[in-house]
Design goal:
The protein is an alpha/beta fold. The chain contains 14 helices and ten strands. It has helices at residues 32-40, 53-57, 61-66, 85-96, 112-115, 127-139, 160-170, 193-201, 215-225, 242-252, 261-279, 281-295, 302-311, 315-336; strands at 10-12, 15-17, 21-23, 46-52, 76-81, 102-107, 145-152, 174-181, 206-209, 229-232. It is globular and about 60 Å long.
Length: 337
């Protein structure tokens, strides 16, 4: 078996990262409680959910809340999306006041509600505008500016290498590459060879993203592409310990251990409590349903448990479901010893 590859510390956006593993910026998922949990399990680089540049300059309360972070989350970047260079530049100035470690520009979101406004991955169809947005952002602050890209709009316009070169020339400090097109959304296989091509074309750090579901995938991406760090997205849902598994495997050749039902339930409960601390009891119920349901993947009667979670209305009701499962699996484990 090929010896696992230990990824050494790397300097990204002026910060020394000991274990270069990142939690992807995921709209509706990578909120403050989830980020804190992933940090506890070893995610060394965090991003906020993407934040609208238009909402920032209008000082919209809900928008600015998405950019909020705690000191214990550092190093963390606030991700901004927008299509107008002047607007994005002004938004960067405002966000720089809260002193994130870096500010990330979203050039990769495939969602129609974003692309129809000319933002996100739509800017991969307009590279001159993409360059203007990046340049305006870099000029607006001393905080390092990074960017996240997709491979292009569709299979007929794979222009991620050209985009990365433009961004480097504009002063962007690092790029993250998700090598799927907008038209692919999250389907199909990501083309890691494009991460390799970007790494060869630019001198700034490159973060690889796409189809990392296990520590073995992380090792393979690092080995194949030469990227400086790896980014985990959907595989962390209901599975924050993936970051510890990746670090243990890369550094110590330690095979990942599947957490027990009880361990998963304790983490699920911790996630719920973090959400309550951040958003309050009632709001956490609605924000956490989809998160909590994923912790039950693989459980006996998992679909029944998930349906029950989505039907409940109060914090105590959801907490009781978790405790009932915890009691059941703790008792079952004791009987089997």
């Amino acid at each position: 078996m090929m010896k696992p590859l230990y990824s050494p510390a790397v300097n990204l956006f002026g910060v020394d990262i000991k274990h270069p593993t990142a939690l992807a910026p995921l709209a509706g998922w990578s909120d403050l409680p989830f980020r804190r949990l992933c940090r506890q399990f070893g995610a060394d680089i965090l991003y906020t959910e993407m934040v609208s540049a238009d909402g920032i300059i209008r000082k919209q309360k809900k928008t600015l809340e998405l950019a909020r972070f705690d000191a214990e989350e550092r190093p963390i970047g606030v991700q901004i999306f927008g299509a107008d260079p002047e607007t994005v530049g002004k938004a960067v100035e405002i966000i720089a006041e809260i002193k994130p470690d870096f500010i990330d520009l979203n050039f990769g979101c495939p969602a129609k509600k974003v692309t129809r406004r000319g933002a996100g991955c739509a800017l991969m169809r307009n590279l001159p505008r993409l360059r203007e947005v990046a340049a305006a952002s870099v000029d607006a602050t001393d905080v390092p500016v990074t960017a996240k890209l997709r491979s292009g709009w569709d299979m007929h316009s794979i222009d991620v290498v050209e985009a990365a070169e433009m961004l480097e020339a504009a002063g962007v400090a690092a790029v993250a590459v998700h090598p799927r097109t907008q038209s692919m959304q999250f389907k199909g296989q990501s083309d890691w060879s494009l991460i390799t091509a970007v790494k060869k074309a630019v001198d700034i750090p490159v973060i690889g993203n796409g189809d990392i579901e296990t520590p073995y995938d992380a090792e393979q991406m690092l080995r194949e592409t030469g990227c400086d760090a790896i980014m985990v997205g959907r595989a962390a849902f209901g599975n924050p310990w993936i970051f510890k598994h990746i670090q243990d495997y890369l550094k110590n050749n330690q095979e990942p251990r599947v957490p027990s039902y009880s361990e998963r339930l304790h983490v699920c409960l911790r996630h719920l409590e973090l959400s309550k601390e951040t958003f309050g009891e009632q709001r956490s119920v609605y924000m956490m349903r989809k998160q909590l349901s994923l912790y039950f993947k693989g459980f006996p009667n998992a679909s029944e448990i998930r349906k029950k979670v989505f039907s409940l209305e109060t914090f105590d009701e959801i907490k009781k479901v978790i405790f009932d499962q915890l009691d059941f699996h703790t008792s079952s484990s004791a009987m089997n010893e």
